[in-house]
Amino acid sequence: MIEIHHEYIRHIPVLHVVKEGRKNEKLPLVFFLHGFTSAKEHNLHFGYLLAEKGFRVILPDANLHGERSDGRHSEKLAFEFWNIVLQSIRELNDIKEELSQKGLVSSQIGVVGTSMGGITMFGALTQYDWIKVGVSLMGSPYYEKFARDQIESLEKAEMTIPFSENELKEIYTGLRKYDLTFQLDRLAGRPLLIWHGKKDKVVPFQPTFDFYEKIKADYEKTPERLYFLAEDNAEHKVTRKAFLKTVDWFGKFLQ
């Protein structure tokens, strides 16, 4: 049996998924971070299978999502994208600290995210050594480049950008602190699984694959700790193949 608990950790709504009777044990922990305009409940299938493997799984709602939504349209929400990502990175540590204080977390902690959640995972790797394993499902480590591309596409769509040129420069500069492509040493050989569909029109495939090619040399002595799973016909939706590979990845490197 798998238990699903709806909780608030440091005022953050989460789903807490764990094997029956093991909620108060010290267990390896996996965070699952949802995508833009999604919510924690939409990814319970990940929580279920990971909990079956013996993990404690925490699925938080990102700010302005799920229970934290204020009802604004996704077009307006888009301008909060990077604030949401950076807040999620901070809140990962808040949740981890709370669980650690209760004696519920071993040193084995992993993070997986889809789309915006995958982007958040990459940024979190630049901040927290306590993350032992990472998985990106159609995410991107290119914070500054992705932000610039977002603004460019919004401008092409003739949307009004609510930022001045100076404010945009400040945003881009601030994102560099979390941009893994500028600080590859922060990976430190940690196991990293990247999945991406080649037909993804939301988060482009090629830059993420280029990043993988760039870091391969850093894993020459431990090639089994880095894996890029590409699917020729996949678009911006996680496939069952990616889902099962994610569960296996944590089973291999986080036990």
TrEMBL record:
Per its record, what are the GO molecular function terms? Answer: serine-type peptidase activity
Name-wise, this protein is: Esterase
Q: Which GO terms describe its biological process?
A: proteolysis
InterPro entries referenced in this protein's UniProt entry, alphabetically: AB_hydrolase_fold, Peptidase_S9_cat
- Which parts of the sequence belong to the Peptidase S9 prolyl oligopeptidase catalytic domain? 88-252
**SUPFAM superfamilies, per the entry:** alpha/beta-Hydrolases
- Which Gene3D superfamilies does the entry mention? alpha/beta hydrolase
Signal sequence segment: none
